[in-house]
Amino acid sequence: xxxxxxxxxxxxxxxxxxxxxxxxxxxxxxxxxxxxxxxxxxxxxxxxxxxxxxxxxxxxxxxxxxxxxxxxxxxxxxxxxxxxxxxxxxxxxxxxxxxxxxxxxxxxxxxxxxxxxxxxxxxxxxxxxxxxxxxxxxxxxxxxxxxxxxxxxxxxxxxxxxxxxxxxxxxxxxxxxxxxxxxxxxxxxxxxxxxxxxxxxxxxxxxxxxxxxxxxxxxxxxxxxxxxxxxxxxxxxxxxxxxxxxxxxxxxxxxxxxxxxxxxxxxxxxxxxxxxxxxxxxxxx
Length: 285
Fold this sequence. Notes:
By secondary structure, this protein is an alpha/beta fold. Helix content is 35%, strand content 25%. The protein has a single domain, classed as Rossmann fold (3-Layer(aba) Sandwich). The chain has helices at 2-8, 55-63, 87-93, 110-123, 145-159, 176-190, 206-219, 260-267, 270-281; strands spanning 16-26, 29-40, 44-48, 69-77, 80-81, 95-98, 105-109, 169-170, 194-198, 225-229, 243-248, 251-256.
């Protein structure tokens, strides 16, 4: 148990998100068919691929969306198999997901939400806690208002977020760019060790994309691992990845360095898909 707790606290070496032979289904249909991927804290990985290849499914499975059923494989983070953990415990452990389509929450301000989320995160991960949340509000020590305001102001300045932002209801009446900036502000406040950005570029014009990308770049560093999920290379013009992977039919079929995305932009996915399928169907000697 001591070793488990040490791993869960992220002591020592950079933490890793390790996905091994992951299979997952939704409503009886298999979507992920053996995904293998390792992201190390401090690295930025881009996961690309055509529509329907399983990229967003992978993001949801990592964070424990109940709609998806894992049928085989494992996801390790800080030495723990997180498939056994509820989504809130995965977040407490240091994982973060920026949604492709963030939901609106009328009546809850951005500032209030960030404060409560940060308090929950600071409670930390308890490996002995029940596997599923109780549904009751826990008693926790609140963050002093002055400390919270100082931290929030620092992050808003870093990300170039207007001060009025925090008084608005979460995503209520937000533009596409504002929704994505709100997600990045959440990431900045919660300071995860591993962040999954699920098509953060979706629905953004070029100016909003640049602003959001600048926010992500401001947070990158040795303490944050990033998995960027995207269809297109354009966000990678602003956020340079260390590794690029291509997913097709629920598997990662090719990986390469930062320039690989540019090659995909020029050639598209068809040539790669055709090559892979030819390799699979080629007769053996």
